[in-house]
Each structure stands twice: as structure tokens, then as C-alpha cells.
């Protein structure tokens, strides 16, 4: 789906919040035709260089900066070969948060095996970007089966351009140039221009690449403080306290010009290779080579990947999250109470040395707290307590239990209001759908695609079903998923608890085994006594 943006916002020169909405003109269910895209109201909130938005020939531009007639398009791509309830959850959350209707690539395609499916996923993305996207267009690519959108589309755009602006200023600072100097005709010609980066999700582990590959050994360090988990930061062999720094291919946003180069390389690698590798492996190696403008979202500002990160997430209501849109804003660590302004230290500080305002907030983590004074307008949101950000997108790579049980925590379900649910469902049915061909021409309404699935059904977690005691854990391959984690317990504390629990379980199992063996021995002795008694009774009397 295409949404127009002006070139000023694409450059990220003026940090801007673009509020976009779209109306898809639906035609008969029996005759799908091309859909017209209408640009709705838009507002611009910018600091320092504020201006009002004006409409000129379906472009968005600021009256306080030079107006460009050049427009670009936002393409929203979801590779999905088949439709199921997981895809419909992704669509439901995207529609509800104002995303444009996506193009489902390779939809209903049948491949002979997994290697062919891997190749065709890369091929379909490369083909679409090459044929349908202009150089200046913005492209969003998401995994279709395990991605949920919890913040509005305009928030994603705003944050994306703010990241670009921050990186642009860092680029100038590397050449001792300030933003004031970076005016037309002032910047020295020897300074290379800043190129808008493609932003990927960030993982805590490098996989499935070899440890000696560029994907694993040549990527930049995380921008998070090197002690954000305390002394155990990046030292935990289970990677729960590793800072995210490796590329995850399931969440992508960036300019078509760069993505076209990325996927051209990936396509050629696949085409020439004897075996077809996953896009995760190939794209991670391309990032490792560090010769294209690619960065990963270290702070979970846009994308929250879940591998080894479930314990970083706490669900809170909006009024409990004191988060600004600036990734560099001061954050008070809820674990230690230490301010990021003091070097970002996250060590286990002495509780008597600081005043922890966070402790006095009416926390409502579902496993430990009950709601008593909540405003009905507040949304229940997943918050990364380590980076201090509310991620716009949640990607459930790794263990899949949360993919089943966390759906009930999302704000559109959590308030349990029948009225709100009806309103949301009506909105999605009225405004939603997807393009089901690789060209983005054939539109299918949401109700026709997903009407048979109840989006307000969800599975209870083992904790909620009473199977797991408060504060304990459930083992899920390939990693333990923590249930009922206290928001004031640090990950290092958590690992010690898990280690103690594992040791206790081992000791309990050993005792149970010993007791079983002892009981079996006693039973055997009893049987032997009975046998001897029976023999004595059967002997003839003298």
C-alpha cells in the first residue's frame, strides 16, 4: 500500500511526527479492482523549526521549509504463503494501529520444499522492490506469523526519522561539523553526505551464522551502556544479559534504494549457492560486511525481538511509563533507581542511597498486581525495562508460548470491555484488508480473509491456569521462559533464582529417585520374606 511522504521528512532534517491515515476504496467481493489511496489529515510536531502542514497535489509539506513536489511511497510487505490465525493477528494489530494495507508476498504459493521457499521469499521481496518501489520510497518488511504492532503507524514513522536524524548528527560530529554548519554550501565537499539507513531489529544472539562469520564478529557494539545489566552485561553465557547488537531479519524499515541493493545481493547469493540459506543468515552476513548503510535497533525503540528478552519486558499502563520519543532522554532504571544521566550505570545499587520513585507507582504486572485505580483510557503496553522504551513492534522469535498467551495482554484485549471490542472489530472490518498478489493490485477485505477467526480469544498462561506457582519458571526449549517475573528483580538475580531452582529440582529428582529405589528394595525384601514364609509353611511336619 502506498502513502505519500515529502522529501524533507525522508531526509530526516526536521524531526517530524507524521499522522497518516488512509481509506481503501473497496469494490465488489466478486470483482477486485485497483484501489485508490486518499491522504487524510496530517499534523506536524517539530522542535525548533515548526510549521503547519499544507496539502498541495497530495503531498505533505511544511510551510516553513522549501516545498518539494517530489513524493514518495510507503510500501508495507508481509511475506505469507498461507493464511491462519497468526497472520490474522498480525493484520488485526496493524489495521487497528493505522498501518496501510500490506502486500502479502507469495500468498497461496506452494513450494516443493523449504529451500525453495527460502529462495522465493528473497526473490519476491527483491522483485517487488525492483519493480514497484521508487528509489526514494520507504519500505517496511515484517514477519507475518509472529509480529504484533502495539503503537500507531505514525509513531513508527516519527521514531524512524528521529533515529535517522540522530545518526545524521553523529555523522556530522565525526567530521567536527555541527548541525548549524550543515547548511547548503557550508559543509566541506570532502565530507561524505549522510545516507539514510535501513533499520533492522536487533537480537541478543548471532544465529544461525558461524561465530567466525562477518555477521557475528564484525558488527558494531551496541549503543546501550556497557554496564546496563550490571557486572554481568555481555558475560552471561545464556545471553539473557547480552546487549542486542546482531541483525534480525524479521523487522525492517528503510529506503527502497538501499533495500534494493541489499536484496539484490541476497538474491544473487541464493541464486549462485548450491544450497539455499535463510534470509536471516544471508542478511546478517551482509550487515557484517559493513559496506552498506544498515543499522540495527539497539534500544528496542522501534522493534522488540523476543529471543532471550522475555524477562526484559514488563506490561504497564500508559501512565506508569515515563517515556519520551527521544532515545537519548534520561531514564531512571526501575531495577536500581540509577539515572542514565549518571553514565547509565545499572549495577545493583544500595537501596538506601537513592529514592526510587518507581517503587511507589501502582504497578499492575498481571502476575503480581491487581488493578484498582486505573483510568479506562490507559493502554496496557509492553515496556522494555532495560532500555526504557515502549517498542512499537513486538516480534516473537524464539519460544512460541508467549505468542499464544501474551495476546491477552495486548491493549485491545486487556481492558475486557465488550463495547471497546465491538468498536475495534468494526474499525478493522471497515478499514482493513490486504493485497494478495505480488504486484499489490488485488485487494481482499479483512472480513473475507479473517472473519472466521475470533481475535478476542487467547490462551491463558500456565501461571494463569494455576499450574505454575508465582515467581517460578516453565522450561521451554530451547530456553527457559520466565513467568511471573517481579519487575524489581534484575536479570542477574533472575538467573541466580533459576540456577537455584534447577539445583533444587535436581536435588528433588535425586531424592525422589533414591526414595523410589529404597521403596523398591523394601518391596523386594518383603516379597522375599513372604516367599520364605510360604516355603516354611509348605514343608511337611516331622
Question: How does this model look, in words?
Answer:
The chain contains twelve helices and 20 strands. It has helices spanning 7-11, 85-96, 114-132, 153-173, 214-217, 256-272, 279-288, 401-405, 411-414, 418-431, 446-450, 491-538; strands at 4-6, 22-24, 37-39, 53-56, 59-62, 71-79, 103-105, 138-142, 147-149, 198-203, 246-255, 294-296, 303-305, 313-317, 380-384, 393-395, 433-435, 443-445, 473-476, 479-482. α3 packs antiparallel against α6 and α6 crosses α7. Mean pLDDT is 74; it is low at 6-70, 324-328, 330-340, 342-373 and 471-494.
Q: Could you name the key traits of this structure?
A:
single chain; 542 residues; alpha+beta; 2 domains; 3-stranded mixed β-sheet; 12 helices
DSSP helical segment count: 12
- Percent range for β-strand residues: 15-25%
**Inertia-based shape:** globular
Total individual domains: 2
Euclidean distance between termini CA atoms: 104 Å
- The residue-averaged pLDDT reads 74
Helicity level: 25-40%
Topology, number of strands = 20
What structural category characterises the helix and strand content? Answer: alpha+beta
Low-confidence stretches: 6-70, 324-328, 330-340, 342-373, 471-494
What can be said about the biggest beta sheet? 7 strands, mixed
Determine Rg (CA atoms, Å): 28 Å
Amino acid at each position: 500500500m502506498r502513502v505519500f511522504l515529502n522529501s524533507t521528512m525522508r531526509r530526516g532534517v526536521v524531526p517530524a511526527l507524521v499522522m497518516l491515515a488512509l481509506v481503501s476504496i473497496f469494490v465488489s467481493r466478486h470483482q477486485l479492482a485497483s484501489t485508490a489511496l486518499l491522504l487524510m489529515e496530517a499534523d506536524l510536531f517539530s522542535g525548533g523549526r515548526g510549521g503547519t502542514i499544507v496539502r498541495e497535489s497530495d503531498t505533505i509539506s511544511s510551510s516553513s521549509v522549501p516545498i518539494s513536489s517530489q513524493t514518495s511511497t510507503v510500501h508495507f510487505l508481509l511475506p505469507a504463503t498461507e493464511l491462519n490465525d497468526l497472520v490474522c493477528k498480525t493484520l488485526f494489530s496493524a489495521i487497528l494501529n493505522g498501518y496501510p494495507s500490506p502486500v502479502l508476498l507469495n500468498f497461496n504459493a506452494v513450494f516443493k520444499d523449504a529451500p525453495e521457499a527460502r529462495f522465493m521469499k528473497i526473490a519476491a521481496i527483491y522483485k517487488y522492490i525492483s519493480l514497484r518501489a521508487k528509489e526514494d520510497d520507504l519500505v517496511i518488511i515484517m514477519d507475518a506469523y509472529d509480529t504484533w504492532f502495539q503503537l500507531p503507524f505514525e509513531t513508527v514513522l516519527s521514531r524512524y526519522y528521529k533515529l535517522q536524524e540522530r545518526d545524521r548528527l553523529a555523522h556530522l560530529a565525526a567530521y567536527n561539523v555541527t548541525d548549524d554548519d550543515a547548511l547548503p554550501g557550508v559543509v566541506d565537499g570532502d565530507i561524505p553526505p549522510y545516507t539514510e539507513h535501513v533499520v533492522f531489529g536487533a537480537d541478543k544472539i548471532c544465529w544461525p551464522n558461524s561465530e567466525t562469520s562477518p555477521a557475528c564478529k564484525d558488527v558494531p557494539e551496541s549503543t546501550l551502556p556497557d554496564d546496563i545489566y550490571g557486572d554481568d552485561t555481555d558475560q552471561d553465557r545464556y545471553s539473557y544479559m547480552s546487549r542486542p547488537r546482531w541483525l534480525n531479519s524479521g523487522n525492517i524499515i528503510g529506503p527502497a534504494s538501499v533495500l534494493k541493493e541489499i536484496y539484490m545481493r541476497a538474491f544473487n547469493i541464493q541464486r549462485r549457492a548450491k544450497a539455499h540459506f535463510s534470509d536471516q543468515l544471508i542478511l546478517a552476513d551482509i550487515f557484517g560486511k559493513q559496506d552498506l548503510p544498515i543499522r540495527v535497533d539497539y534500544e528496542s525503540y522501534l522493534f522488540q525481538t523476543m529471543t532471550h528478552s522475555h524477562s526484559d519486558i514488563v506490561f504497564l499502563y500508559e501512565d506508569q511509563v515515563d517515556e519520551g520519543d527521544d532515545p537519548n532522554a534520561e531514564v531512571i532504571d526501575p531495577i536500581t533507581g540509577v539515572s542514565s544521566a549518571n553514565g547509565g550505570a545499572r549495577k545493583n545499587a544500595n537501596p538506601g542511597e537513592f529514592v526510587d520513585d518507581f517503587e511507589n507507582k501502582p504497578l499492575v504486572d498481571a502476575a503480581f498486581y491487581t488493578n484498582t485505580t486505573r483510568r479506562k483510557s490507559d493502554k496496557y503496553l509492553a515496556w522494555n525495562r532495560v532500555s526504557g522504551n515502549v517498542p512499537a513492534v513486538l516480534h516473537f522469535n524464539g519460544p512460541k508460548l508467549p505468542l499464544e498467551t501474551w495476546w491477552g495482554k495486548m491493549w485491545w484485549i486487556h481492558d475486557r470491555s465488550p463495547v471497546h471490542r465491538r468498536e475495534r472489530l468494526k474499525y478493522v472490518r471497515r478499514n482493513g484488508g490486504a493485497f494478495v498478489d505480488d504486484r499489490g493490485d488485488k485487494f481482499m477485505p479483512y472480513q473475507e480473509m479473517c472473519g472466521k477467526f475470533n481475535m478476542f480469544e487467547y490462551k491463558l498462561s500456565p501461571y494463569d491456569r494455576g499450574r505454575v506457582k508465582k515467581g517460578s519458571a516453565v522450561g521451554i526449549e530451547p530456553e527457559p521462559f520466565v513467568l511471573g517475573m517481579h519487575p524489581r528483580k534484575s536479570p542477574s538475580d533472575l538467573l541466580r533464582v533459576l540456577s537455584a531452582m534447577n539445583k533444587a529440582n535436581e536435588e528433588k529428582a535425586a531424592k525422589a529417585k533414591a526414595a523410589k529405589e529404597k521403596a523398591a528394595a523394601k518391596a523386594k525384601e518383603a516379597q522375599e520374606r513372604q516367599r520364605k514364609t510360604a516355603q516354611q509353611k509348605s514343608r511337611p511336619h516331622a
